[in-house]
Amino acid sequence: MSLENKVAIVTGAARGIGLAIARRFVMDGAKVVIADVDDEAGEAAAGDLNSLGEAMYIHCNVAERLDVRNLVAETLNAHGDINVLVNNAGIVAGADFLDLEEDDFDRVLSINLKGAFLCSQAVARHMVEKVESGGAPGCIVNMSSINSVLAIPNQIPYCVSKGGLSQLTKATALSLAKYGIRVNAVGPGSIMTDMLASVNDDPAAKNRIMSRTPMLRIGDPSEIAGVAAFLASEDASYVTGQTIFADGGRMPLNYTVAVPDED
Ligand code: NAP
Question: Which keywords annotate this record (predicted)?
Fold first, then answer.
């Protein structure tokens, strides 16, 4: 198993893509810490995953420095090490540019971007200390998006946060390369989670997405978990500072795809 006995923190893992990553990591042999703000869903997720391997839940708002400090301390207390961090927690706040509220801009940036910075710095301090005392380096995987490069006019803070996360990935990778600590990102396209659930009941919205998705289907969270598992594994031992896009072909597409009628 590629993550046998590794300790992995996955933020925002009570549901959606984060939960799929937590599940995949547990199946790959990791001891997983689910960090989220939804305590009920987080505890339930950890309970489910414990039937497959080892998982625990820790409450953590990634935008809060003290919560992050506590997450690292509690993980080290429980497992004595942290080998992998997945910065997955993320939110959206839709509004036209002219109506966008400052608070919404700040909220999205503080979770999606500052949260990844706080968690990365706190975990990297532990990883560097370990390397300096002869231990093996760990790695960080950020959950970016195709919207780190492409843009949606009524998702300004989200696109800005993911663009920032792309630069955070590169700059952190360069800073930590000398310790052997790798930092990469996954850039999903449209993935079927609660974030996208409304599309299921809206044929026009689904058609819009399909017209920009050459593989003509919405992705499954497990397909993002597979990329995260690769980046977290030794198979990616010489990969750092990269974003791997898993988007059904959207990024290379210029125009649109002809979408067949649904019967
Ligand atoms: P999701 O289903 O909404 O799950 C996100 C989880 O993060 C929820 O459990 C949420 O809790 C939690 N969370 C929110 N704020 C948090 C905070 N401050 N601290 C810790 N946890 C927090 O989202 P998803 O679709 O799985 O997305 C996961 C990641 O993938 C995000 O970074 C997103 O930007 C990225 N992504 C998703 C897609 C997609 O199509 N789904 C595409 C590209 C990128 P609450 O529910 O209580 O808020």
Answer: NAD, Oxidoreductase
